[in-house]
Amino acid sequence: MSEGANGSKVARIGLLGRGTVGSAFAELIAQRGSAVEATAGRRPEISGVLRRSEGDFEEILAGSDLIVELIGGIEPARGYMLAAIAAGKPVVTANKQLIAQHGDELFAAAREAGVQLRFEAAVAGAIPIIRVVQESLGALEIERISGIVNGTTNFILSEMAATGADYEEVLARAQELGYAEADPTEDVNGADAAAKMAILARLAFDTPVSLGNVSFEGIEEIRPDDIAYASELGLSLKLLGVAERHGDAISARVFPCFLYGGHPLAPVEGPFNAITVEAPSITEITMSGPGAGGIETASAVLGDVVSILAGDAPVHQPGEPLNIRRDLDSSFYLHLEVADRPGVLASIAEVLGRNGLSVKSVVQRGLGDEARLVMILHRAAEASFYAAVDEIAGLEFMRAAPRAIRVIEKEYV
Amino acid sequence: MSEGANGSKVARIGLLGRGTVGSAFAELIAQRGSAVEATAGRRPEISGVLRRSEGDFEEILAGSDLIVELIGGIEPARGYMLAAIAAGKPVVTANKQLIAQHGDELFAAAREAGVQLRFEAAVAGAIPIIRVVQESLGALEIERISGIVNGTTNFILSEMAATGADYEEVLARAQELGYAEADPTEDVNGADAAAKMAILARLAFDTPVSLGNVSFEGIEEIRPDDIAYASELGLSLKLLGVAERHGDAISARVFPCFLYGGHPLAPVEGPFNAITVEAPSITEITMSGPGAGGIETASAVLGDVVSILAGDAPVHQPGEPLNIRRDLDSSFYLHLEVADRPGVLASIAEVLGRNGLSVKSVVQRGLGDEARLVMILHRAAEASFYAAVDEIAGLEFMRAAPRAIRVIEKEYV
User: Fold this and answer.
1) What is the phi/psi pair of residue B49, to 5°?
2) How far apart are CA A141 and CA A207, in angstroms?
3) Preferred mutation among A281, A295, A301 to probe B, highest tally of B CBs within 10 A
4) What ipTM did this prediction achieve?
């Protein structure tokens, strides 16, 4: 660390990337530098900025005490981070894809070099879930983390529920309002949430988890009448990330699901994020706040910078690899459009029964010469459920492809 | 730190007090010692326990690397903590009264000795609010912290709302269920919440705040019909702690209040705690979880132990003392029992108007020859409101003492 002009100790920050988050971060550093100095003993100053068109990485690295990586994407961000770590410089990043896909390599490099690698901003914007899972709850046996970790999809689902409008219409509105990007693919198909759940599962279960270990489904197929049925049943529809411990194995998944009204994540509306952590000794803790806007993400980055200036902390070191389970049990909502004639319900019930599935509730509605069957099934092996749905899809009286959405009921949590 | 029998590095913990929390902590240490070692590099072991009837403090101190204080109360806990700090031993405590009343002395001693003093368990059980305010949000300008920080009173108010039963009946039930102590005074009169708000205000605003700076009111006077009226108006009744910044001054208070339905703390029911932190760059973050049971508190203590083993961190250092404002503006609910005859409402309206108070809504109900007037008043200086209420109380048509409860409406937050 070097001496500033006024004699105070300065921490020189090399800033990689100056988009929305980078600009908000530079502004926060200017506003809150004295507050950081009061807390951490050193005043952070930006000593160099690397943009696509400007700046030399080697020069910025040599002139900085720590690196803040806000470029995003895999390369060149990965190369820069490894170089910074090798040079003994602590790194703060908001790059969820990099941590989710190359976490093991980066953590190993940071441990070897003995430098901190912090990434609070990679998950859930300003909600300090990384620190809470890693530090506050770090010694507890976490059983499950459930999260609404993508603000775009939560906004879309909330709007669909509030207005009855269909997916495409609400997506267009979200894009106008800046809640969805021009290319929303990674958000709406669940991939963005999956990267965040990979990071949370790794920290919660102290085991290597990468993006490929997280199965994900998106919200592109959700129709307004699914949400209307959910609402009739007192359930709300959310895109949920769930990482769970199953004895010696774990699972990590992202899927749209119906959530019972009393679930701590059920009231989370609009572009908000929220995460519930369950462990025997704490029951559950829920944290909620705005999703990852520029200023919220920059605030999380600043928190990490303060932590680095304030003192040492161990780098994440995963324990034994745990098996990733994909053969899980779930409860499902099943929506079937069928010909309205006698025997149809009996045929469907026969297929379900033969696959070991039992029906919790069923509503049938006539629509001219068609009928709609909406069922909630009791918890059972997902493989059995999908086998039954495949079989039902082939029955001659079916008028459309079956639609299935998981249900999280009270007993599950 | 010393070598354990198996060659692993051991952190010797001197445990002061072995009541509910102390026993739960000892059990957690036994269960989670290896997990802590994996994270922090050292295995915590309890090297000595001080009970009322057993153990010698000096001996325990000499044989330990850090001290966990779970005795509670002011003395001898304060003397033990100062002695431990002077001996260069880090201290973890769950003692809210000690931090709220003697924080400045303890923090100064810890800074001078260069040892950590951690107290996550002092506020909101397992919810890691201290760490989040001090570290994650440490560099931000926090504007307001609002919290339900006493589980006993939240349980009582939730039960009163759910059952319509009166305060004494629900308090007795809470005592049976273990949610209220045999002597519930400190919980129900707001003093316990005030100690927690003193700690949160100190950390949020980086200024010395002690218990005497926090004004508090309790829930002893709440009647079932207040809650019924609130519910009719779409409001819920909570005992809230609020610490706010007002330019160069701050305020910290605890009071029962009606909360609008969309407030992040409105859905918090039963013996739960929840805290909302507001700052310009994060909008708001809310954290919720179970209140301070033995195991939840022990989990928070363990988190602090892990942090101490994992690395250094600066001790809280307050900045300039800020003025404590008590002359605040609020919106109020006002409940008046009056003789049912012409001119009564006009007389009351005249008093309110003369004191600069305007009525937002009023409901009048006849009850034989009496009537009940329930009003919600617009935000105004509390001093004006109380002056008006004093005057109204003296009017000859009043049939009972006026009842007033603050209202937190949407525009307030």
Assistant:
1) -125, 130
2) 13
3) A281
4) 0.89
